Amino acid sequence: MSEMIFTTLTKAARTLSLMAAVTLGAQAATAQNMFAPVARIDSMVVTEFEVQQRQRFLQLLNAPGSDRDSVVEGLIDDRLRNRAASDVGLELTEEGTQTGLSEFAARANLTTEEFTKALEQSGVARETFRDYVTTSLIWRELIRARYLNSVNITEAEIDRAMGASSGGSGLRVLVSEIIIPAPPPQAARVNALAGQISQSTSEAEFSSYARKYSATASRGAGGRLPWTPLSKLPPSLQPLLLALAPGEVTSPLPIPNAVALFQLRAIEETGTPTQSYSAIEYAAYFIPGGRSEAALAEAARVQGKVDVCDDLYGIAKGQPAEVLVRETKKPGELPKDYAIELSKLDPGETSTALTRANGQNLVLLMLCKRTAEANAETDRDAVLSALRQQKLQGYSNQLLQQLRAEARIIYK
């Protein structure tokens, strides 16, 4: 009996040893394949591991460009960016790196360590996050160091951007918008999503996000707004748009219970004098229920009964005084979210894109009137900064194209 047991154990041990050897061999082969080159850029390589890590990272953030081809191209660009910075001896300080990581994580209302742990739990190495952020930071520093002194903005350029050139011509813009509701329980998720939407590189991509996430009336059109005079937009938004090249997106703009993003599609001189405003009069009627079906249905009912702001008094009759607010403010004094929505309205038109009271009240916002102002002052320094950033972005695109043209790129 003992011999039979010994023989059985021996066979089992041999079987387990063989299975272990096969398993270890398969794991070794898999590991080897994971680090196989996917692309060669001169003497540099992009590995399968990096591609899968970057894809996973972007997918977790609901970021555009997470398909395999886009990820490979992005990693190739990163190799070229880092080499260009290394060639001139440019390095990030650890303090600068930590600040960049912290700012990125803060978009999700998390600390760097919290954000990193969340990524690791989903299979993304902390090095993947660090590399993604530091490459962007070092490239920005390189562009500023290389081109900032070459960026000369003339007074005439500032005048044109302000719509105050000698001919009196103004500017108008084609913009797409996304406003995503972000009540406190959803703020972290929405901020992370908005951070990734801001990386959109095409109108189609941005419009797809708008149809899926935006709360504005323009969502059915992919967030696309018609031509709008620049002076009609909120003063805080104007320099941000001027800093963009067509196709680029603003950073996420926090507004009460929501996050806003804007994509510049086109900009042109109108040949007509710019119009500035000294005051904006509006009315806000608050409907309980937030963005519920019942509240939106009530808003639609009210919209069908009002043509001017005075009509809202009849709607609010018998209700607490605080359900209706009517104010006149300077453009720069308007709440940021109100300013954005009012810029899209003509007198008598309404918007239901916003909420108040932590998302519990839907705002039916109506523009009463705009008061024109002659020769309104615009912050020339803000315009100068925006134009400078726009030119630096152009240099950035040109340099990357040059680096790609000079490199020998081989796809595996």
Key attributes of the depicted protein:
412 residues, alpha+beta, Triger factor/SurA peptide-binding fold, Chitinase A, domain 3, 4 domains, four-stranded antiparallel beta sheet, 14 helices, 11 strands, 21% strand, globular, disordered N terminus
What's the SSE blueprint?
Layout: H1 2-34, E1 37-41, E2 44-47, H2 48-60, H3 68-87, H4 94-106, H5 112-121, H6 126-147, H7 155-161, E3 169-181, H8 187-197, H9 203-213, E4 228-229, H10 238-242, E5 253-255, E6 258-273, E7 276-288, H11 293-303, H12 311-316, E8 324-329, H13 336-342, E9 350-356, E10 361-373, H14 380-406, E11 409-411
How would you describe this structure to a colleague?
Mean pLDDT is 84; it is low at 1-31 and 163-169. Helix 3 (68-87) packs across helix 6 (126-147), helix 4 packs across helix 5 and helix 6 packs across helix 14 (380-406). A hairpin with a 4-residue loop joins strand 9 (350-356) and strand 10 (361-373). It contains 14 helices and eleven strands. The protein is 48% helix and 21% strand. The strands form three sheets. Strands 4-3-6-5 form a four-stranded antiparallel β-sheet. It folds into four domains: 1-31; 37-149, Triger factor/SurA peptide-binding fold; 163-274, Chitinase A, domain 3 (Roll), CATH 3.10.50.40; 276-373, Chitinase A, domain 3, CATH 3.10.50. It has helices at residues 2-34, 48-60, 68-87, 94-106, 112-121, 126-147, 155-161, 187-197, 203-213, 238-242, 293-303, 311-316, 336-342, 380-406; strands at 37-41, 44-47, 169-181, 228-229, 253-255, 258-273, 276-288, 324-329, 350-356, 361-373, 409-411. With 412 residues, it is α+β, with helices and mostly antiparallel strands. The longest helix is centred in the first third of the chain and has 33 residues, at 2-34. It is globular. The termini are far apart.
